[in-house]
Amino acid sequence: MDIITVENQTQLKDAFAIRTEVFVHEQKVPEEEEIDQYEDDAIHFVIYDGDKPVGAGRLRTVEDYGKVERICIKKDYRKSGAGKLLMDKIEKTAEENQLPVLKLNAQTQAEGFYQKLGYQTYSGEFLDAGIPHVAMKKNIKN
Fold first, then answer.
1. 79, 41 in Cβ contact below 8 A?
2. From CA 139, how far away is CA 137, in angstroms rounded?
3. Are strands 101-107 and 65-73 parallel, antiparallel or unpaired?
4. What angle do CA 120, 36, 31 make, to 5 degrees?
5. pTM for this one?
6. Helix (H) or strand (E) segment spanning residue 130
7. Across 82-96, average pLDDT
8. pLDDT tens-digit profile of 45-79?
9. DSSP E strands: which ranges in 1-142?
10. Can you tell me the distance from the alpha carbon of 24 to that of 3, in angstroms, rounded to the nearest whole number?
11. Is the dihedral of CA 37, 4, 120, 127 positive or negative?
């Protein structure tokens, strides 16, 4: 599997297609909530298995930290290590952009995954798009 930083419209369409499949179709997030006003401000990532997109995510700079968002892996690729590879790439990109802390809002069903990567929960449970989430953060080296 290869993880790329999106550099063109075709790759961005691939990212949006994965997000739509996972969030809109599978998890029933309203389509108008999935694509938002921050798309142009984010660094987007796509995981490819050969030429097939299988995962996506994005990173935004907010104040003095990095905000990890829209992490999703196609159902057939979950538990394959793809999510960890994606997060490793995002963390490396954050370091290159001198962002000392990463924050994310994790679906509660994925909280354990992020904890294994060193993220710590710092909020109670809340709903986002009708799905239970918690806020998490990780200090990364610069």
1. no
2. 7
3. parallel
4. 100
5. 0.92
6. none
7. 95
8. 999 999 999 999 999 999 989 999 999 999 999 98
9. 2-5, 43-49, 52-62, 65-73, 101-107, 120-121, 126-128, 131-139
10. 22
11. positive
